[in-house]
Amino acid sequence: MSKPYVVGIDIGGTNTVFGIVDARGIVLASSSIKTAKHSNITDYIDELHHELSKLIDESGAHDKIHGIGIGAPNANYFTGTIEDGVNLPWPTPIPLAQLVSEKFGIPVAITNDANAAAIGEMTYGAARGLKDFIMITLGTGVGSGIVINGQLVYGHDGFAGELGHMIVKRNNGRLCGCGRTGCLEAYCSATGVARTAREFLEIRNDDSLLRNIPVDEITSKDVYDAAVAGDRLAKDIFDYTGEILGAALADMTVFSAPEAFILFGGLAKSGDLLIKPVKNSMEKNMLGIWKNKVKILPSELKEADAAVLGASALGWEAKFPSVTTVPTASSTPIN
């Protein structure tokens, strides 16, 4: 009996990465196309079909693909649509799952990129065996995927789990890309760390390696490098970020009592520079019944494969006969 495979597709505003994955979570082959060059969704799907079909044939996986999973910004698992893809070059909403399924003749499931990461972690990574956890992605923004009793939480409309847009600063908070002020994302994303660096450099007078970089060009990687070199101001930036994130994790615990928070993304690789203040702040702000019960774990997905693995894990769930018959809010979601 031939081995089954699935395809994982991660759609970003600039690039679309895709790969063929086996049941053990091994990526057989992967490739990418430019998302941004296609102003027409039909042209985009045509190129995706051409390049992915070529990859499937080269991998000897023809007729062995059981499903396609897609992670994309503001993708709705219930409807199979991208409903507000502000960073994508096409007008939305787009019935993407249906269009891709019709093109390939294969069942397709779609969800947002942070949910896909949570599913990937539960299938292949640090969350294997966990039934209650929250995935936090610390990248350009802050994303999240909430799993309760082994099931991803989608809410009544498919958009639950936007924890990056919890308000953490009620007064004089930073403007967030969503249009509100004081969101967690505005402080604890990679861009949030760079914003903190600019603020600290303005209000403080102490020496810092960061003063050697044009202020508008400072990145979170620059802050990390300076902190590793012993720069006090850079370390304070991580302490400030960790204090905010840890308090937010304590608040999230009240909602779903997770066994663990799993951190993924560039900032999560900062090690104790971030994790130590996050843990201290989480425990300081934690309701007593959960003190010292909730773990903070790093992702176990290889960053190079994480996007494809997360989306591919959804592909195993793409079992409905066609995406015109999508799950309803009362259906059992991914587990």
What does it look like?
This protein has 9 helices and 12 strands. It is of the alpha/beta class. A 5-stranded mixed β-sheet has the order 3-2-1-4-7, sandwiched between helices. Strands 10-9-8-11-12 form a 5-stranded mixed β-sheet. The longest helix is centred in the C-terminal third of the chain and has 25 residues, at about 230-255. The two termini are about 25 Å apart. Residues about 320-335 have low confidence and may be disordered.
What attributes does this structure have?
5-stranded mixed beta sheet, 35% helix, 335 residues, 9 helices, disordered C terminus, alpha/beta
* Mean model confidence by pLDDT: 90
Helix content: 25-40%
Measure the end-to-end span: 26 Å
Strand order of the largest sheet: 3-2-1-4-7
| Helix count from the secondary structure assignment | 9
Total strands: the figure is: 12
Q: What is the beta-strand fraction?
A: 15-25%
Name the structural class. Answer: alpha/beta
Shape: globular
